[in-house]
Amino acid sequence: MRSAVSAILSSPAPESNMSHPDYRQTAHDHASLLIMVRHLGSKLNTRNFSRLYERISRQNSFRIKDSSGSVRTISARYVRSYPIENNEWGDFQTHRRVLGLICVGECSNTQEVSELSKIHESLRSKFSGTLYDSCCLFLGLQHDDSFNETSTSTNYVNIISKVVSHPSRTLYYPSLDKCVTLEADLQDFVSSLFWVLESKRLVSISNIDKEKQPFLCAPFERKDLIGMDLESRTHRKRCVGRWRKQVGDLSLQAGLLSEALEQYQAAADVLRPANDWLWLAGSFEGLCAASIILLYPHLRRPVPIQRNGSLTGEGFNSRIRSNSSGVGVRSLPPDIDSNHHFLKNRLKFKHSLGPDEVIEKYHEAVVHYSKYRNAGVIETEASIKAVHVLIEQRKYLSAAEFLQNVVFINLHLSDEEKIQRFTALSELYSQLGFKRKSSFFRRVSAMRCVAPMTTIQPNWTLCYQLLLESIDGYKLSLDPALLSHEHACGWHALQVQILQELTGTARRLGNVPLAIRHASLLVHLLLIQQQQVGSIPILSSQEQAEMAKQLDQLAQRSEMPLHPGPLALENGTIIPPVSLTLLPKIVHFKLQPPGAVLAAQRLMPEDEINNGPFLFTPIQFGSFRKQPTRKTQVEMDFQWVVGDHCEVLIQVINPSSYELRITNMQLLTEDVEFESESTSCIILPPAVDQKTTPTVITLSGIPRKPGLLKIVGYSMTVLGLRNHCKLKSAMPLMGSAFFSIHVVPALPRLSVEIASPNHTLMTISESQSVATTSSVQLYAGQSTECNLTLVNTSSVSVESFDLELVHGNKLCSSQVFSVSVDNLKAQLPWQSGTAVSVTVYVQGASDFILPAITDYLSNLHSGDDSNSLPSLSGPPSIFSRLSNHTTVTCSPRNKAKRAESLVSVRSGTSSVRSGGSSNLRIIECHGNNHVVPRTVAVLLKLQYSGGPGYTAGFCRSNGVGLTVEILPSVIITKWDVLPAETPSHCYLVLDILNATQHEMELQYSSCKHIAIEALDTCRIPVPVERCPLVKLTHVYTEKDLSPEQQLEKIAKICSEHISSLVELKWSLSGVNQTCKASLSGLRIAPSMLDLLHIPPIQLEVELNNEIWSAERTEFICVVGDVLNVTVGLFNALSKFLGPLNLQISVYQDLQNGTFHRRLDTRLLTIGSDHAVLEKMEPNSNYKHCCGIIFFTPGTYKLDVVCSLKISTQNRESKSNLPYDSTNEQHVWKFVPSIEIIVSEPL
Q: What range(s) does the Trs120/TRAPPC9 first Ig-like domain occupy (predicted)?
């Protein structure tokens, strides 16, 4: 390729006298009349002349009737200038003759008309040898007739009479826009040329048969006439052949294709034996031209179309050039189409050539032309015509062979003509699809424009334009979006070189913004090539750093601010913007959701919104659904709020080898007003052989209006340039063009301050989701308060507020925390700056009773009296004392002393475990005295709204976490129930553990206190009023209850009754507060139930007809007297009871923990001491009488016990067991026991 360029630039043969080739000639031009249109004078500006010339050029085909009445189609070809050297070749090819001359000028008086006429005459005389007719067109003169030589118009006659010399034809028009008859005048002008041409053709035909014809020759052949034998037969053949060839040219121009084909064929047949290779080649070329007109009638010179490159979608730098073939869209391939024309016209035009024959003849003609050094221009044009035909036939490789021949043709051309030749070759190669070769010749042409050793002045503008048009062939685009980031495309070294040349050319033009634009693209391209797979760096790291430094210096030299948008050149070319999206390179782009306390939430969840009625239809709409399209956006699942500070986190790396200083980095948004905040940073280059660590940059801003906000990219200033980087370009692998997020209307903001009991103040920041205060420590039963202060820190008023306690363990935390917001809601709305407070009450609620043993019920009826844990420390029923040696110790004769002796007021754990000192029936807990503190947490959920956001249905939610550590204080480890002095009361005996590290003062009744050491246990009796029968009536009367279910319900009612009456108050030395311990959840054993509630069977005892009352302490009788005992039973229920077992027993208390019940030798019972009632009706009475005679004096005790037997089916399952009171369902005793003193008779 470079050798071809050297051949073009080398010195040619000096004999050539033909000017430069016409690279836009086609075969159809052989049939055209050449008309030159010249611009006269300076009054008519170039723009108006170009408009008029374009209008004239569109009239290139005329239909003219000949002398026989046939209509011929005459073609015209217009040129603005034409070299006289080429006109001298008119004898060789008549289409090179200038047959018509049209001069265009503007004048307003006769003097100007005369001057323009003189110029016209000089041009006419210059081409007088070939001109058939001429015409002068004047603008600016008023007349009645546009063109009439015999016009009688006074104005026209006066003007013509004053003109010294005027052309044969003169056309006058008032203005450019009023040339109404221009087309008709051109028709007349071309008709005059046709008739002259037709007359010359007829004369030439008549001369063929003459013995001697004029010897036609090319300009360079005239010097060879000397010494030539003009009488030889060969010369005669040459004369005839050349003459026939010229007749063929005239016939072709006259529209007679058949005659032209015949003359060309005849000329070729004559010239071939005469070895006249030049004219033989001309005959072949004419034969090809006539055949091409038949085969490809639309292969015409296209009309140039200028189009703004910015309107095309291929890129900003694309420019539509007038180098296309001009062939319309056809449904058949070109070879089939041309063959169809050939077969159709074969019979009519028998000498017509086929498509392949045309190429063969062109090849033969070019070979013959190459034999003559002076026919280089003819050879070049013939090769180009063949190329056009081959392009039409889509035989691009064959066309490339013809073009390669053109490259090596050495012509004598000026520097401007060489530039034109390189440009023409570039356009032809572009039509062939040889893009890189096309760009090579265009770049050579550009470099020729500014070559130092030329005769022309450097044309940097043309050089830049040619360089700009050559980038496509190197697979380079000025639009960064079209550059591949993944795989190598094109030739990197050539791309870098062409961009460097564009940058240097722009600097020589003095266009600094343009140079900056190309330098930016060069830096961007180097970064792209650096990250492509398998690419080798073109420039070293130092050279790249130097390139970036030069770009920074260019940016500082720019006098005007550099706009990141497209750059428009003077010729209409649009240079697209270049954003340095790889300086730095984005590796992660994430929109930050607002903190949990600032996040916008729906007042009503979307799934609860009523979207209308449900409509069912069996129609399937799947076939009508659109196909899924490519995802163009990433929509966030959270919202931003108007007026809030919003953030986007970007992770970037520096792919270059130099330091990056980034300033004024902001977000680019669309559709919603967004106030972006600027940030700056410095990113150092990565160290050698070390992994690159991304740098995190936070971009922030404040949305000002609600709607769907689109974040399309970011802007920044790097290397002195302002860049607008779109996400689609910066992150091509993201798959979307932008991020979208909904911006909701403005909402208020509340700051929360919490004052804990230890007077510490905690403020919840906006970035926190939930703030947890320091752990508050309380003893079980202790209470405190936390003050929650809310301040409206926004400009939007709070119109709605709600506070909800969200419990982790609802059963536990609901007893610990409580709050009321009625006072806060009454103060709504809260204006900006308003501070309100609410108190959160914290109660150290705890289970003061440890759970009982799991095997309690299984050991309930066991006969084991062991006190080892876990067990019952006594018999399961109080009435087991009738037959058991383990009894309650009481002192005789004194009620107060007896109550104190029921339990040990202060006892250690050793006594409980041993069971030797307090022989009480006590339910024990699991484990030892060590109790682990428990933690209770609650979330105070604040939901508030106001302003436009409240109207739109949005709110904010804030969470305040409170954690309370509840330390153990009072723990009830064991408990039992003992009878009291009166039937309406009983004693609840409790073992109390002080689980604190301090001495505790415990108040267990209104007037009784006790001090308990740290980690010590104390046993206390608590007097309790027995549960009234009214609370239990429904249990006894309820049907379909099993005995176990009945006992369970009674136990529950009794437990609630005890917890409502008993309240233990305690205080510690370090706690300035009286705390309370509750007995909620106290587990009641079945053996305790009959002592805890008023029995449904009420007992009444009469001794010797005196009703015994609990207020009496003793009854005195004499040995030998009969003691009449009458026991009355009353069923207080509205339901019958039975069967009942009544037992009257007498025993002696030995005051050593044992009872003596075998008194057969000391007393006698008259009558039965027990009775069985099968059924006792509701509200009925029953009495049983017996007598007792004491034989020995002493102190005796009388017990009356009534028991309700188990059901029949249960009794059948236990029929094989001995009778035992523990097998009864309920046992009711007359309390207290009656003390009888038997004395000796007086």
A: 607-722
Q: How confident is the model at residue 337 (pLDDT cuts 50, 70, 90)?
A: low
pLDDT digits (tens, 9 = 90+) for 157-183: 343 333 334 446 788 888 888 888 899
Cβ contact 984:1028 at 8 Å: no
Q: Which range scores top for mean pLDDT: 374-388, 444-458, 885-899?
A: 374-388
Distance CA 269, CA 283 (A): 10
Q: Are 46 and 39 in contact (CB under 8 A)?
A: yes
What is the average pLDDT score of the chain?
79
- What are 989's strand-pairing partners? 976, 1021
Share of the chain above pLDDT 70, in %: 78
Residue 1203 has pLDDT above 70, yes or no: yes
Burial class (CB in 10 A: 0-12, 13-18, 19+), 55: middle
Terminal alpha carbon distance of the chain: 162
- CA 176/CA 141 separation, integer angstroms: 11
Residues 6+ apart with CB under 8 A from 518: 499, 502, 503, 506
φ, ψ for residue 721 (rounded to 5)? -115, 145
* Complete domains list, the chain, with CATH: 4-305+321-412 (no CATH), 422-556 (1.25.40), 585-609+625-744 (2.60.40.10), 750-847+939-964 (2.60.40.10), 851-867+875-931 (no CATH), 969-1085 (2.60.40), 1095-1239 (2.60.40.10)
**How far apart are the C-alpha atoms of 585 and 494, rounded to whole Å?**
25
Q: Between vectors from CA 359 to CA 358 and to CA 362, what angle results, nearest 5°?
A: 85
- DSSP class of residue 771? E
Q: What number of other Cβ atoms are within 10 A of residue 542's Cβ?
A: 10
Cβ contacts of residue 853 below 8 Å, gap of 6+? 859, 869, 870, 871, 923, 924, 925, 926
Task: Label residue 839 exposed, middle or buried (CB < 10 Å: 0-12, 13-18, 19+).
Answer: middle
Radius of gyration of the chain (CA): 62
